[in-house]
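Render this sequence as a predicted structure.
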Amino acid sequence: MLEARFRLERGAFELDIELEAPPGVTVLFGPSGSGKSLTLRAIAGIVEPDAGRIAVDGAAVFDRAAGISVPPHRRGFGYAGQRPALFPHLTVRQNVAFGLRDHSRADKDAVTSALLARFGLAGFEQRRVGSLSGGQAQRVALARALAPGHRVLLLDEPFSALDEALRQDLRVLLNDLARERELVIIFVTHDLREAHLLADQLAVLDGGRMLQAGPRDAVFRAPLNRRVAGLLGAVNVFPATVIRRDESTLVFTTAGWEGLAASWSGDPGPGQTVDVMIRPERVVMRRGTPTVNALPARIVREFDYGNSRILHFEPDTTGPRLVVELASRPYDVLDVRSRKSWTLELPPEDLHVMPAPAPAAR
């Protein structure tokens, strides 16, 4: 377990972080300039926080109050960034073995051979790194970061310069390695799809603040507020008023339509103004009439993305406008192309209620 609680100021920018990363992949996600890379650099020891503590399994590598600041090369963390930063005068094998200087030659050969084979680089041992493709070079960089046997791996958008096929292969490999070696991997990205594919834990940053952190699906399905929902690609967010709530359900009204939700953040009560969210892939298009949360609506716009369709709906009478994402096969089977009027079902377990932002002061 890596625990980081620290504050760091760089000019007018202030970073305030509270993060717990268990074994597995923890993704730091947020827009450019949110503080993701600075967070990683602080954990690595490349920059030093102004206050706080960073520890692995309870052992501090940084503690401002106690005067502890372990140098980066002694923290036992592997690190790889957007650029492989390989040593051009060394071969592939020598690059991977660089962090094994205290090992015997036999150990070096065994570790490097195993990693090169695992990363699909067997036969490249004597190649100079200048002759490698971008994907091959990034594989060498990742193998080098893992070679010393570190349990913590810090990765700053390492796949951003690679094509999608290579990125997918490396994502799968990274997830496999995390589970096999019980690694703590902290992975920085601003790519929402990559965050969803990789994360066991997801931490959302914005403006130097950790807005929400937790298991990936919990964060995606139950954001704390409209800002987090927006950063995570939620397009169906609409204002509503709470009518009543019991232990398991909440009834709300929006644009004259009454809905039932089974998920909420905070403590919403009757009469309170809230935001309601449902992800576009969770809206169900029905031929028949649902028994709960039925919304008659018609398609007014649609976009074809090849493997999926994005459909924009307007309500027939009352209710919110909605965006629905439908895979291409169901789109064809349902014959959506020739039918514009549908009954949408908004499952209560997929409707999430959040506190509405406070009105701006005048």
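Summary. The chain has two domains: 2-221, 235-355. The domain at 235-355 is CATH 2.40.50.100 (OB fold (Dihydrolipoamide Acetyltransferase, E2P)).
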